[in-house]
Sequence to fold (231 residues):
Amino acid sequence: MAAADESAIADMKHRAGDILREKDIVSFPTRIDTEIYCPGNRLLSRQKLDLPKDAIIAVTTGRIHWAKGWSFLMDSFKLFLENFPKALLIFIGDGAEREALEAKALALGLNKNVIIAGYQSPPAIAAYLQAADLFVMGSFKEGWSTVLVEALACHLPIVSTRFSSADAIVCQNVNGFVVDRDPIIFSKAMVSALDLPGVGKYTDSVIDRYALKNLASDLLKVWPLIKKVTL
Fold:
């Protein structure tokens, strides 16, 4: 089993050559606690976090590191502000490049529109997601992205750059967009994602495959030896 999408598994088998050529590798996503990550009341969540009730809020989660594409997100968000001048971009997480992020926000005149929430517990992350209108991710490379699934579970539309698992989690033009690394394209996708009508319905149709509560039964489906021993 591998926590990767089918294309990533195929690439891994190709690079491994004869070692994995004849092996069956099943895509098995990492799981999240859907008791924590779930839809919530947006206004109540904003009150709890002292966030404005009338602003468009985009959230991203992860280390503040160049590989997560924070600089690209800032460039895209600046263009997004042309449509929504009071919008906020919230970074949930911390990292060695926090000061660089803060400096870029100041240089772009975004210091009043960018919030760095720092490290947060899972319930607090869920509260930010429940308060948001949109989840964005600008990574250059990822494994199976747990944070995309957390955003999915909270019924957020997603706009992401293309990396392993993004196309598996985001259904194009249904619960979001996976786009090329171009700030203009990305910012336009952010605007379009706000109007997607079927995000919640799509989530409800797929979320069980990512739910921690189904881990044991899903393991038994793909690992017959466990089932035999258990029975």
Strands lie at 57-61, 88-92, 114-118, 134-137, 158-161, 176-179. The first strand starts at residue 57 and ends at 61. Residues 6-16 form the longest helix (11 residues).
